[in-house]
Amino acid sequence: MVGLWLNIDYAAFVALFCIGLYVVLAKQNLIKKLLGLNIMETAVFAFIVTSGMVDFGAAPIISDDTTGPFASPLPHALILTGIVVALSITALALGLIVEIYRRCGTIEADELKGVE
């Protein structure tokens, strides 16, 4: 039971990911699907950042008065890159959704199936 509480953050990330997955699968509105994807991305980013943490670890800045253990800086650097990529994909998707709305008059996925 104690181990469960130590990993409660992982359970929160899984729940957040499942919420995003539900939104992507259940909603027909393209904006809502995009928001679901962003929720899923946030869950993955939070999971990776948390996995790089070390209990009672110091920031990985070397100076005369700091001693180890240090938190790993690699997950943070990867996530910064991931955030930039996710933001770019979101901007591109929003642009495509606007163009779909201009051409078809709707952004509902089930209505777009009948549009030619």
Describe this structure in a few short sentences.
The protein is an all-alpha fold and 116 residues long. It contains five helices and no strands.
Give an account of the 3D structure.
With about 120 residues, this protein is mostly helical. It contains 5 helices and no strands. The chain is elongated. It starts with a helix and ends with a helix. The mean pLDDT is about 90.
**Binned strand content:** under 5%
Radius of gyration from the alpha-carbon trace, in angstroms: 20 Å
- Average pLDDT number: 88
Main sheet: strands, sense, barrel: none
Helix and strand element order: HHHHH
Topology:
Blueprint: H1 2-6, H2 8-26, H3 30-51, H4 74-104, H5 109-112
Helix pairs in contact: 2-3, 3-4
Main attributes of the structure:
0% strand, mainly alpha, 116 residues
